[in-house]
Amino acid sequence: MWIYEKKLQYPVRVSKCDVKMAKYLIEQYGGADGELSAALRYMNQRYTIPNKVIGLLTDIATEEFAHLEMIATMVYKLTKDATVEELEEAGLGGHYANHDRALFYHNAEGVPWTAAYIAAKGDPIADLYEDIAAEEKARATYQWLIDMTDDVDLQDSLKFLREREIVHSLRFREAVEILKEDQGRKTIF
């Protein structure tokens, strides 16, 4: 089903060690509205979505896994030269005690990822509206992350991710329209 190209979807550069920013970025790694949750949500929903839009969920789920890889790369680059004291000062002491420098699926506050983050109702329209909301929440989080750093290299990668969330939201909105037309419903957009 997949062909893995051994390069990031978009280049990830950082200009300095910034452990606090890495802590915030972990939200998009293992948080409720992060990339793992999105990828698994869409991959799961594709089994109860009409064939007309199944490919869309597969495509976007696959891209979300690529985004997860980008976030992991950002966190690694932001922390690779950090001391244990810097990790502790940034609020990552508990993470270090449990996982050393290995990434672990949890949010910025250290709450572990849970399957409860994955919404799947089985109603295609309800699921697609959930997907639109998920993409908009991720877009908002990326904007806040952009606002929290002065690293223009990091901002560049975050802006790319923010824009992809917008595209995904638009694609899910198009899928709603396609399914509603098939069902003879009027849209609310």
From TrEMBL:
Mn(2+) binds at residues 35, 64, 67, 135, 168. InterPro entries: Ferritin-like, Ferritin-like_SF, Mn_catalase, Mn_catalase_dom. The keyword Membrane does not apply. One of its GO terms (molecular function) is metal ion binding. Its cofactor is Ca(2+); Mn(2+). Keywords: Calcium, Capsid protein, Manganese, Metal-binding, Virion. SUPFAM superfamilies: Ferritin-like (SSF47240). Binds 1 Ca(2+) ion per subunit. Pfam families: Mn_catalase. Ca(2+) binds at residue 59. CDD domains: Mn_catalase (cd01051). Transmembrane segments: none annotated. Belongs to the manganese catalase family. This is Spore coat protein CotJC. It comes from Brevibacillus gelatini.
